[in-house]
Amino acid sequence: MRTAGLEKTSEQWRQEIQEEKVRADQWEKRFHDARARESVLKKSLAEGQSEKEKLEARVAELEKALHQHRGRNSDIELKASLNRIEDLKEKVEELETALQNCELRIELLESKNEQWKEQLHQSQDQVRDRYHIIGEAVAQIREVADYLQTLAVQADVLSVKYELESDRGRELACLFKKVKALSIRAKLYM
Question: Sorting pLDDT into bands at 50, 70 and 90, what band is 2?
Fold first, then answer.
């Protein structure tokens, strides 16, 4: 029984189960927090893509305006438009870099999310295994307690019968009293 950890009291088993439940809840909270961060990053990614599309549309408009200005041969306007286009191209590059960074962070979060899911499943499996072991231990304890009750009744009858007969009878009656005391203690586990 000691190697299987069955010498623990019911209260110790309950406390151990409660600790396992707390650990499982902590893993589940971490999992939900990761999901929330993933959702925020996906939203940020979508906004970045939307901004990129707007900037690309703006670049297209400016390039169109540039062609119109070329037709007018307006050097000043042309230089200003070119500068704007260059600025917008730089912004697009910055946004693309930010977008790539967001995608990498999302991949990292998804990887961590999978790890947390695996750890959550492992914790749940451990809790199920311990419930099973505890159930078996409780069943065995109840069987022993029931048997002790039966022995106590028999010991009580035999102790009355043998107590007065001899020294051996008194020793036997004393032994029966010990069995009876054990059966009273065993009632706590039933």
Answer: very low
